[in-house]
Amino acid sequence: MIVDADSLVVDIGALVRPGEPRPGVRQRDLFLVERHVALAIKDGRVAVIGPESELRRAVSGARVISAGGRLVTPGLVDAHTHLLFAGQRAHEVALKARGATYLEILAAGGGILSTVRATREASDAELLAQTRNRLRTAVAHGTTRLEVKTGYDLTPAGELHQVALLEDLRREGPWRLTITFLGAHAVPEEYRGRAAEFLQELMRVHPKLVGHADFVDIFQEPGVFEREEARPYLEDARKRGLAIKLHVDELADGGGAALGAALGATSVDHLAHTGSAGVERLRESATVAVLLPGTSGYLNQGPHAPARSLLEAGVPVAVASDGNPGSSPTVALAPILPWAASWLHMEPEELWPAVTTVAGAALGHPESGRLERGDPADFLIWETDDYRVPCYQYGTSLVDETYIGGRLVAASGRPLF
Ligand code: NIG
Ligand code: FE
To answer: Does domain 7-75+370-415 have CATH number 2.30.40.10?
Structure first.
């Protein structure tokens, strides 16, 4: 046997290789760990994964990458972030400590609206520089594909411009970037009490998103955008061929999960308050549930999403960071794994698909998070040989090396680009 490869990853202690979600297959059964295998790469893609002894003979002249007996996994896919913003909101720490809730801060013109002010004031260069730094850190901590939403301008033209800025960042790479238009992230101060009118204005830019944004999203939450306001907005996006996502049931059960399922959303996200009716509607749909335990944990004002009920109903469950300046101030997904295990009661065998293949499905990119022949060679080498340890040890990053398209892009927590 001769294998045409330019790189060969050897000395792999354990290779995690989750399968993509399929109806009728339990999430834990998507999990696969292999030992004594090597990974051959050609032109940035997986050429073959097979027994190490055979591949060492079959490949010649390739660059050899030693994993040093450690864990190798696909790159992490972060299916929900808001990393395009300026500034930070550290002043909210004390407000929250004194008992202010997320929606109270927002209603007082703070929260999302304070980041909107900072973002509108920032120049494009500043906004790009701050966002680029976050993406660099995310990659250094193991994220290889991520979704980034707009949503901190809240004018139709400004939100459209943010899509263009994200397209610039997508071209820059090395990250793989999915772009979501979240103009309907909050009701801007200029439209206070006129949410439906604001949505009408935003709808006018939907036709211009085609070919630029991958998804249209809305923060559908009682008190922000109501269910019956969200419906025509999302139907309009669908009519134009745009795929949709929804923020739902984050702070109360507003029936958003069922709405998303009925509209054929690619994913419904948050779901902290989703009840059994919502779970039932998701069971009957092809919609992915994206859970954000970092947010429910950080806000610490309510329940975590019903991950067990969703998994038992056979709903594919992804876990994402929700990286944003308010409810989940992080840029990385890896540090959330132990919290997902603890708070969502998910086992490592369920969590690995949740941050790789199921997350890829939530972004319409089945090849992201998967390591089959022809898939992009996006993978990580960890500071452990045990796939359970990243779901167990919290605080510091255990990702040692990040590879995107077969290229080493970060090592020891530092980007190399
Ligand atoms: O997913 N829910 C709305 N959006 C974000 C929070 C954004 C912010 O607070 O700046 C979320 O939690
Ligand atoms: Fe969010």
So the answer is: yes
